[in-house]
Design brief:
With 314 residues, the chain is mostly helical. It folds into two domains: 20-73, no CATH class; 91-262, MetI-like fold (Orthogonal Bundle). It has 13 helices and no strands. Helix 1 (2-29) packs antiparallel against helix 12, helix 5 runs antiparallel to helix 10 (222-259) and helix 5 packs parallel to helix 12 (278-306). The longest helix has 38 residues, at 222-259. The chain is globular, with a radius of gyration of 24 Å.
């Protein structure tokens, strides 16, 4: 287990370094000049050149990146070139919004998806075909389009939920929950669909294995076979799939935050990209990468706990 954790830590450091460098290079290739954006349309070429030099954007890209990396290694992600506010402060205030969306979506996708998948594997027939249909619909429906429909139906017509905005849990747990219901549902449809199908397919494959037939021949109750043996055997595949869903949510939350005007990391990334606010863009990339690292590390640990063979192999 320790070897697994150490290897994951090493890969994490490599990933953080690679993502930060790639983000810096891609941003440098994006058309536009932060200095020109700050000064506005009335600025002269001389004032733009002066501010560009002051901000350090006239230097070679590797020099700019090394300066940023040196500060980051000392725990300083820099300051926004537009507001002057520390990047860590900007992103830390927005992180709870994105985490609320991701955690809520994963909980709903896991509970509902596994429940449907287990029921489908147990009953088969029409329910199995229904799961296939739901899966296709879940993959085909864009979350932002579904979010827009939810706003029209539940916010504008029946006024049951707020159309936009976010309320912190500390301010009001009820309003916090209401502000998340529609965004989480819009994001969860995709997760429910593929988790249900993966659970059903993995359990159906497990039902055909020799040890399941042996348990049935011994008269073990069907409920025990399903939940203690078949589902546990199928869970590693589902857990890995959930990790991939979390990574996809990093993009999905960006779109949903725009639809529901939620002040999360995704909406901040869009704003920073439009303004060419490099320190903020780098900070968002680091936060997203760190979330990805944490998710896959937890996935490895959970799979190792579920399957001793994985733990022994690593």
């Amino acid at each position: 287990m320790l070897k697994l954790i150490l290897r994951r830590l090493w890969l994490s450091v490599t990933l953080l370094f690679g993502v930060s460098a790639l983000t810096f290079v891609l941003e440098s290739l994006t058309p536009g000049n932060p200095a020109a954006t700050i000064l506005g349309t009335q600025a002269t070429p001389k004032t733009i050149a002066s501010l560009t030099k002051e901000l350090g954007f006239n230097k070679p890209i590797y020099v700019q990146y090394w300066r940023w990396l040196d500060d980051a290694l000392h725990g300083n992600l820099g300051k926004s070139i537009f507001t002057g506010e520390p990047v860590s402060s900007i992103l830390s205030s927005r992180l709870p919004v994105t985490l609320s969306l991701i955690i809520g979506t994963i909980l709903v996708s896991t509970i509902v998806g596994i429940s449907i998948g287990v029921a489908s594997a147990k009953m088969g027939g029409r329910l199995g075909r229904l799961v296939d249909t739901i899966s296709l619909l879940g993959l085909a429906i864009p979350s932002y389009w579904l979010g827009s429909l939810l706003v029209i139906a539940f916010a504008l017509r029946i006024h049951a939920l707020p159309a936009t905005g976010y309320v912190t849990f500390g301010q009001s747990p009820v309003l916090w929950l209401k502000s998340l219901v529609m965004p989480v549902f819009a994001l969860s449809v995709f997760g429910i669909a593929i988790v249900a199908k993966q659970t059903r397919d993995a359990m159906m494959d497990t039902f055909d294995r020799e040890f399941i037939r042996a348990l049935r021949s011994r008269g073990i109750r069907s409920r025990s076979i399903i939940f203690k043996h078949a589902l546990r055997t199928a869970l590693p595949n589902v857990v890995t799939l959930l990790a991939l869903i979390v990574v996809s949510l990093l993009l999905g939350t960006t779109l949903i935050e725009s639809v529901f005007a939620l002040p999360g990391l995704g909406s901040e990334a869009v704003t920073a990209t439009n303004l060419h606010d490099v320190p903020v863009i780098e900070g968002v990339a680091m936060y997203f990468t760190a979330l990805t690292v944490v998710v896959f590390t937890l996935t490895d640990l959970v799979n190792a706990w579920l399957n001793p063979k994985i733990r022994g192999a690593r």
